[in-house]
Amino acid sequence: MAVSWLRKLASRTQVPVFPVLGKQGDRALRYLALSPEIELVDSPRHASVLLIAGEVPADRFEPLRRVHDQLPYPFTTLWFRSEPWPHLENVPRVEKLDELPGALITAHRELMAGQRDSAPRILTDKPPNPWKGEGDFGQGGEGMMGGVPYGRPMAMNMQDDIRDGLTLDSLTFRLGPFFSAFPPGMMAEITLQGDLVQTWSTQLAPYPQSLDPVFFTARERPVPIAELELARARHHLHRLFQALRLAGLENASLDALRLAQNLSTSSTLGGLRRRLVRSGFFRLSSMEGGVLDPEQARQIGGPAARAAGLDDDLRLEDAGYRRLRFSPACQTHGNTRARWQQTLNEIDQSLHLAQQAERDEVYTSEVDRIETPRGPWSEQGPEDASPLLDEVLPGLEWGEALATVASLDVAAVVNEGGGTQTPDELRVVQGGSGNVFK
Amino acid sequence: MELLTLLFILLLSLGAGLLVQWLPMRHQPMPTYPQRAPFLGGGTPDSHAWSRYHVRYYPMTLLLIAFEMEMMFMYPWAVVFVETGMKAMMEMGMFLAILSVGIVYAWREGVFKWQ
């Protein structure tokens, strides 16, 4: 009696979903973030549904198996636009984005009501190394620091400290590719001493990101600048959404996402900017780190370069933009704070440009050299810049390092536009309602 | 008799606490080893996370204790000061001077700089 009542109660709560992002899975994440019945959690331990959003490449199957087995009993999985593994039986697969929240809610309710069995564990129930009964006290080995208690060796000091020479135990681990604070698909091997990043080596590059189709059209023929600039502002707002989530400012992040969804030439940034200033986002101490030198800034390009004082912008070469008297605004410090200030200024600038361009019906003139929100695209599109993190992050505290990763747009850009979205979905996900030229 | 009652209450509350924990867990198997591994977004750790590291606020807490000791001695001193007058004042001055040497030293070592 009591149990069935508890089950009913559990099935009516928000659905705790842990999203595993495959290629182009971030769209589904943003869509779900605005669904009131869905709660996106940051750890599989808090989830009852594992959502695999987008195609996961084969070299990330092993990490996916590990994440799959970390959900507590009972749990279920749902595959969005990706092929479920053949040995998982009766696994629902969803294709349409607007059906996704409903499918997640149904899966959760059925699971809680006992109508659906929990997903099976994939990995065998074995410790990483055998340890039980070994050693004098059954602790897994010889001596004080020897052996592998609970299957893993104890931390030992293996590297000299780079902060103040006080060498203590270093902790080496691999993080990702399904860690929510990283760009989707990125994996890094990290050594920490306390909270200080001692070494960082990026092992798997983030998935190439897809830009708004208008940027790919702009490579073929002149497009309305208003449309291009709105898409640019939307891209930056999506990145801001991720950063604000990481900073723990959940409501502000949803504000940024809603603004991106309803973006039109009449939108203004004032409200969001005031909110960010009041919430102390720019005063966070973790915003000091991640200073790029000019060479590193040039390699990443785009807003990151302009935040470091380089006024490179291909829009300067475009006659349409010159008609609108465009000139790039820059920052000087090149740290995380400067990058976010730069990003906000660029969103503001894009909205103003879009407003002017819509009034005067200005089109781009260049097609071979365009400035994407990720950086310049002339002969080649923006390439993966994640190896640069190996140079920038060592020496930073953990919070600074994560804030730096969130502020740098390092993923490459896919070479073909559009992806697998229908025009309807584009409107749903990206909120093109204010798109006057469609 | 009172002790026995107290012991009884203790046992009863302990038993109730354990029962509440045991009831929902009784049909569930132990979490598997892969489930118990730390969550690293699909990554793996090389070692346990039981590592010795420097708590950076440690010297600051030591200093807080120094300040607190100073305050603790000042309360009874305030009473004595009324009776003894200038002599107590000078003694307290010496005490504070010795303590402030410690604070000045800590300052020089950069303890007040938050790391």
From TrEMBL, chain A:
One of the record's GO molecular function terms: NAD binding
Disordered: region residues: 120-141, 418-438
Domain NADH-quinone oxidoreductase subunit D: start-end pairs: 288-358
Annotated SUPFAM superfamilies: HydB/Nqo4-like
One Pfam family hit: Complex1_49kDa
Source organism, top-level taxon: Bacteria
Coiled coil: none
Protein name stated in the entry: Ni,Fe-hydrogenase III large subunit
UniProtKB/TrEMBL annotation, chain B:
Keyword Signal listed: no
Compartment list: Cell membrane; Membrane
Keywords: Membrane, NAD, Quinone, Transmembrane, Transmembrane helix, Transport
GO cellular component annotations of the record: NADH dehydrogenase complex; plasma membrane
Topology class, membrane: Multi-pass membrane protein
One Pfam family hit: Oxidored_q4
Gene3D superfamilies in the record: NADH:ubiquinone/plastoquinone oxidoreductase, chain 3
Enzyme Commission number, as recorded: 7.1.1.-
Broad EC category: translocase
InterPro entries given in the database record: NADH_UbQ/plastoQ_OxRdtase_su3, NDAH_ubi_oxred_su3_sf
GO MF annotation terms: NADH dehydrogenase (ubiquinone) activity; quinone binding
Record's catalysed reaction(s): a quinone + NADH + 5 H(+)(in) = a quinol + NAD(+) + 4 H(+)(out)
Function of the molecule: NDH-1 shuttles electrons from NADH, via FMN and iron-sulfur (Fe-S) centers, to quinones in the respiratory chain.
Family per record: Belongs to the complex I subunit 3 family.
Protein name: NADH-quinone oxidoreductase subunit
Species annotation: Modicisalibacter xianhensis
